[in-house]
Amino acid sequence: MTGKTLTVCCLLFAVCCLFPACGKKGDPTLKSYEKPVAPSSLRAIHRESEITLTWAFPKGKEASIKGFYLLKSPGGDFLKIVFLEKHIRSYVDADFSAGSEYRYKAISQNLKGIFSNDSNVVVIKPRTPPAPPENLSFKAGADSLTLAWDGAGAGILYNVYKSEKPGEYSLSPLTKEPLAETFVKDRLNITKPIFYTVRSLMGGESRDEGAPSVEIKVDPAEFVPSPPANLQAVPTEQIVHLIWKEAPEEWVSGYRVYRETDEEGFKLMGETRTPSFADKEKASTKRNYRVSSLGPSKEGPAAEIKGVVYIDPK
Questions:
Q1: Where are the domains of the chain?
Q2: Which residues contact 169 (CB under 8 A, 6 or more apart)?
Q3: What topology is assigned to 229-308 in CATH?
Q4: Mean pLDDT per segment of 10 residues, for the chain of length 314 residues?
Q5: What is the CATH number of domain 134-222?
Q6: Average pLDDT, the chain
Q7: CATH tag for 33-124 (out of 3.40.50.2000, 2.60.40.10, 2.60.40.60, 3.90.650.10)
Q8: What is the pLDDT of residues 150-207, one digit of tens each?
Q9: Is the dihedral of CA 182, 184, 189, 194 positive or negative?
Q10: For a tag site, which of 2, 144, 242, 299 has the least CB within 10 Å?
């Protein structure tokens, strides 16, 4: 070892002697021993034979906790009923009796085992839910869909559920508030099938919902448009102009025009996106026309006009 290297080593040793913490980790922070954030917005929904509990917790705080404890009181002290992983925000409790009152609350636990404050307490007294609605049906209108069903009794309310997958529905109904009437209108989706079901309920914060109605599938591929209205023909010496009223359904994509003469049956002449068509063949003999509307997949019934021929006004 050279004299210069020895001098540097001695200086480093002296610095470490002056600062004993050199090369050691600092004291553990007290922040890890602080109470974690408490769950919030705890809610209880009674559906059939289950009480579904949901709550909120900040995603950004998940890393600092182990998970959640749900506590339940059937009238006395609160008891822990389940521990749930930190990414979970719901739990289904099937251990209850209709007519009895229950209280629920939730707490979080951090990595040091410290518990949070309590969430809000929810109180629920589940009632026997009503029977499901029957005879669910739909009618596709010009730009909307109307669902209707038979009522389940006086004072019963209804929640409508909508999904893109059969049998898979969230807890959130179509409308913000339960319906007192036995019908509802929804925006018409013509790009893919949509599924609906309806549940009867008693109302209130806990809902007390019964079993779902029979599921109904609304498939735009099955939509059949109405026939064009007010079909008219205006023959001239060279052209026959066909005009009609635009279809009321917004999902109509166009129209097909057919022609029949004395010598042949109806044959397709062409398609048009507008409610008009020009037959550029001179109408020297009588001919009949049919015009039909085109839905997303199906062609509707045709409107017809007969005996069109050009007569020289001279």
A1: 33-124, 134-222, 229-308
A2: 161, 162, 163, 197, 212
A3: Immunoglobulin-like (2.60.40)
A4: 48 45 52 89 96 96 96 95 97 96 98 96 96 95 92 95 96 95 94 96 93 96 94 93 93 95 85 96 88 94 93 73
A5: 2.60.40.10
A6: 90
A7: 2.60.40.10
A8: 999 999 999 999 999 999 999 999 999 999 999 999 999 888 999 999 999 998 889 9
A9: negative
A10: 2
